[in-house]
Amino acid sequence: MAANEPSSLLLEIPLHIVAHILCQLDSISQLHDAVLSHSIFHAAFQDNTYSTIGSILTNRIPLDILPFALALLKSGRIAKRDTEAGLRLLRQLKTTILDPSIATSSILELSISDAAQISRDYEAVQFLIKDLVEETIPVLNERLEVNHPPDISAQERVRLNRAFFRYQLMCNLLCRRYDLQALDDKITETFFEAFSPWVNAQLACVYGYLERKVGEAFDDVAAHDVGYGELPVYWNEKDNAYLQEFLSCGLPFLGSVIRARSFDERIDLLDLSLFKARSWDCWPCAQLQKMDPDEEHPEIEIMVPTHTRRDDLSQLSQPLDEKHDAAGSGPSQTWLSSHFDNGFMYPMFDDEDRNLWECGYAFWDSNETGEMTRSWEEWKKIRALPRHFQRQFDWPWEEMLQSQKQRADIWLAGGGGYWPRDGFDFGKIQGLKEEDKERLLSRWRAQGGKSQDS
Questions:
Q1: Cα-based angle 104, 106, 112 (whole degrees, multiple of 5)
Q2: Tens of pLDDT along 296-353?
Q3: Which of 387, 343, 333 is CA-nearest to residue 363?
Q4: In the chain, which stretches have pLDDT less than 50?
């Protein structure tokens, strides 16, 4: 038998057994590679298409998370102004969370492309969870003086999965709109009211992580790319419009940006053609400001006597929180401890809480034993600490304007590429002749630009 001929032994395996082997793969992309690798895998897949796809997804994605994965898939097909379709989707999500068997049945009806999208979303979330946990737990242990192990519990993983899927679902339903038409508040209220304040606080933690990590890549590109400088794009603004747009471009995109380490990798992803101007109220940060529990539960007093705290916590708990985040869970106790002294009116999404977001404070089991309970004064001190993660591209205003002016000159001369902060280094600039460079250097030196020679 020639070396490149298929093994006769492999071809003798019944197709249903080969299909069972395919079902053990981790993703639809792996299935794609396997099906193309050998005719027996292709035949088995053709004979068992839907069951194979369904098994891969249900084996890989926890039952608690399947409803969110399906809802996210469907949300991408809803027209931007179709509020009723969005509300129907949120009602379906609620039903499916309470009865996950509905999600299992729906998985078996997916097309290959839909299954691949769900698989990509889930794999992106697993990377994001790993990265968040690796960065956050050391900060948690240092700031709150606890001893959380490097590995997370099954409950904590459910919370993190749900938070990332809910974040992108929020972006798809509430942020993907490019006009000034007012958004129907009903869909916003429905989205946030379905869960307790501490589950919504998990969204704030995810946002803080994504804003910081994608912001690192964005700052690098905005500070050095010639095209960004020509517009110009400012990168030291709070709630930057470009950054907010990139933050709503999908979980696989976010994972790719965070994975990217070099300028070249980042500029390939953060393409300015992706940007579409949107009003501020469509940004992710603006949507998150609408989740305060005072609007959800006006019957609860702003200041709650200590002896009634647990009762009011029960009122704030929602059926969709389920066992992972019921009243008395670690996240509920931490949220109550860190927000109580300002009552339930304390803003759920506030810059003052960034130190808490850096700890992922609303995700952890620890407070089920009271380990993370602190007095209000202690929480104030934690909020007042310097940020653990500092911005790397916090340039003085004058220096930023000078860089933008020089990059605009390069662009107008026909150049592009990377322009460094210090010195006149054209090493990573393309499209300029030597006489163009000399002309630019003469102009900048006459204007009192960078002091370093090229």
A1: 110
A2: 444 444 344 444 455 566 778 898 998 889 888 889 889 888 887 655 556 778 889 9
A3: 333
A4: 1-4, 179-180, 295-308, 451-454
- Residue 249 included in any domain: yes
> Is 195 found in the same domain as 220?
yes
Instruction: Give the pLDDT confidence of 113-134 residue by residue, as tens digits.
Output: 999 999 999 999 999 999 999 9
Contact 272, 228 (CB under 8 A): yes
Report phi then psi at 307, rounded to 5: -70, -10
73 phi, psi to nearest 5 deg:
-60, -50
Tell me how far CA of residue 70 lies from CA of 50, 140, 165, 247, in angstroms. Answer: 16, 32, 10, 21
Mean pLDDT, the chain, integer = 87
List the structure tokens of 65.
Answer: 């998370």
Determine how β-strand 429-430 pairs with β-strand 416-417. antiparallel
Residue 416 has what DSSP assignment? E
Residue 41 and residue 175 in one domain: no
* Residue 276, both tokens: 């579409």
